[in-house]
Amino acid sequence: MEEDKNDLSDRPAKASYSGKSSGIMKYSGMAMQMLGTILVFTYGGYKLDEWQQNKVPVWTLVLSLTSIAASLYLLIRGISKTGK
């Protein structure tokens, strides 16, 4: 009977700790995905402007703004999935 009481008291502490760490990992992963998306698209736009020798960095602006919109969309979609 004593062993059962010890097992029950350990479970909530472990569950709450693992829940915090998985939440941190999930949101830091989302942040890294956003950063990576923005950096890759912006770098691609920079290289396109360099290749086309544009005086105004049109591709850099277009692709960086597109990447921000795409990363926000993915962030909202990811957060709404975790809420369910």
TrEMBL record:
InterPro entries assigned to the protein according to its UniProt record, in alphabetical order: ATPase_put
Transmembrane segments: 27-46, 58-76
UniProt xrefs under Pfam families: ATPase_gene1 (PF09527)
The keyword Membrane appears for this protein: yes
Keyword line: Membrane, Transmembrane, Transmembrane helix
Compositionally biased intervals (Basic and acidic residues): 1-13
Domain of life, per lineage: Bacteria
Span list, region Disordered: 1-20
The protein's name: AtpZ/AtpI family protein
